[in-house]
Design brief:
It contains twelve helices and 17 strands. The longest helix has 17 residues.
Length: 340
């Protein structure tokens, strides 16, 4: 019992765009996955939201790094620094005078290679994790949505995160068919930047493009509840004079069309490979959408019309994976799909 008192249990969704940590069924941290580092000393200057405020605004003495790219660790040292910093933030809220023994479950893309899986595990262990479990993100999303992943029936989940879109058919506690494509939130942001450059001759940064995506992001040209147009200001590409443009949701639907079509193709590819009995379950129950991309206006409607199967947006799509890792952590001894 004495040992258990000093064991800290954390469930982490280590996302390309955001990192979410659950503890005791509550969100204790929800921060952008970004770190600001001093170029001279190599030390961390800021993490999360503070670092994001510096992003694209820093002087030559500071660099901001997004340690994860396409859902996997691209910068090992920065990732370790970020994970350690986030765990330290969570620990600063507790009054224990002892360093806890950390037991952690982390969500990873289903298309991760052995090298990428090892990078996540090593970063977590170096950041203080003593007992590290890994779970594939579509499985975590299914748990977070509330699906019975161990039932003898088929469930299909499409998780559109920042770096990857994870598509999986789940049955009997395992992933039957899966696909992981690197067309997701970051690509949508780049699409918007490119569109504004080509159509409005305006240069905008990543943060502004992200704001446009949130304000007027849509994937169909006709919506019932239309958002107010977004006014964007920036330098003209040719003259560098300040200009502004009013961006409507139907313009964003047009500029995201090719990327959404890639996701549709991937969904159809997975359905083609799905065994008939599981396919009939999916037709009956529908397909579940999670991740930040699920919040794009009209996405469920567009996908339903394309695939002829109803799509349902999860109740809290942004935190579905994190909530699922939390459920997995509580049942770590019972779930065979967790990797140690």
């Amino acid at each position: 019992m004495a040992f258990k008192m000093f064991t800290q249990e954390l469930a982490m969704d280590l996302g390309t765009a955001n990192t979410v940590i659950f503890q005791n069924d509550q969100i204790v941290l929800d921060e952008p996955s970004i770190v600001a580092i001093d170029n001279d000393t190599g030390k961390c200057r800021a993490l999360g939201q503070k670092a994001k405020l510096m992003h694209e605004r820093v002087n030559p003495g500071i660099k901001t790094i997004r340690p994860l790219k396409d859902g996997v660790i691209a910068d090992f040292e920065a990732a370790e620094m970020m994970i350690r910093g986030f765990i330290k933030q969570v620990n600063s809220k507790s009054r224990s005078i002892f360093a806890p023994n950390i037991r952690i479950v982390i969500g990873i893309p289903s298309g991760s290679t052995e090298v990428e899986i090892r990078a996540v595990r090593d970063s977590s262990e170096h950041a203080g994790g003593k007992d590290v479990y890994l779970i594939y993100e579509p499985m975590a999303a299914a748990l977070g949505i509330g699906l019975d992943v161990e039932a003898p029936k088929g469930n299909m989940v499409v998780d559109i995160g920042g770096g990857t879109t994870e598509i999986a058919v789940i049955s009997l506690g395992g992933i039957v068919i899966k696909d992981s494509i690197r067309t997701a939130g970051d690509v949508f942001t780049m699409d918007i930047q490119q569109y504004l450059k080509q159509q409005h001759n305006i240069k905008v940064g990543e943060i502004t493009a992200e704001k446009i995506k949130v304000a007027v992001g849509a994937v169909i040209p006709e919506l019932e509840n239309t958002p107010e147009p977004y006014t964007v200001k920036g330098p003209n590409f040719m003259t560098a004079h300040p200009v502004e443009a009013i961006i409507s949701y139907d313009e964003i639907a047009h500029c995201l069309d090719k990327s959404i079509a890639k996701i549709e193709t991937s969904i159809l590819r997975v359905l083609e490979q799905t065994p008939p009995e599981l396919y009939s379950d999916i037709v009956e129950n529908g397909i579940f959408l999670s991740g930040g991309g699920a919040l794009l206006r009209g996405l469920d409607k567009r996908l339903s019309e394309k695939v002829n199967i109803p799509f349902h947006v999860a109740e809290d799509p942004l935190h579905a994976v994190a909530r699922g890792t939390c459920i997995a952590l509580k049942n770590a001894g019972n779930y065979s799909f967790l990797m140690r």
